[in-house]
Amino acid sequence: MVVRCHETSKNTIYNWIKANRKKGSTKSFPRDKEKQYQEIIKRLEKVSTENDMLKKLLAEKELKLAILRDLRDMVNPQLLTKSQ
After folding, report:
1. Does pTM top 0.70 for this prediction?
2. How far apart are CA 46 and CA 55, in angstroms?
3. Which of 21, 50, 53, 65 is 20 to 30 A off residue 39, Cα-Cα?
4. Rounded to an integer, what distance in angstroms lies between the CA atom of residue 69 and that of residue 52?
């Protein structure tokens, strides 16, 4: 359906999939249902772990930015006395 909506040939899609598999960016699921289930669980855990790590990094960056904004907005009394 997506192929028809975007008027892309099936061969183009297959070539993209083949090229991405060679790069390792996509990996097919096993044919066995139980193995598929286990692979989905494994991938979900990996993505969940990466997501948690990224959330932590983002929170740390936001904290650093907040500290830097506070420092930027502070008035330094030593500078005020020197300039007067």
Report:
1. no
2. 14
3. 53
4. 26
Amino acid in position 46: K
Cα separation of 62 and 83, whole Å? 33
The rounded distance, in Å, linking the Cα atoms of 84 and 78 is 10
Dump pLDDT digits (tens) for 53-65.
999 999 999 999 9
CA distance 1 to 8: 10
68: tokens are: 């830097």
Rounded to whole angstroms, the Cα distance separating 4 from 41 reads 32
Beta-carbon count within 10 A of 48 CB: 10
Q: Is 18 helix (H, G, I), strand (E, B) or coil?
A: helix
Q: Return the ∠ at Cα 30 (arms to 26 and 35), rounded to 5°.
A: 125
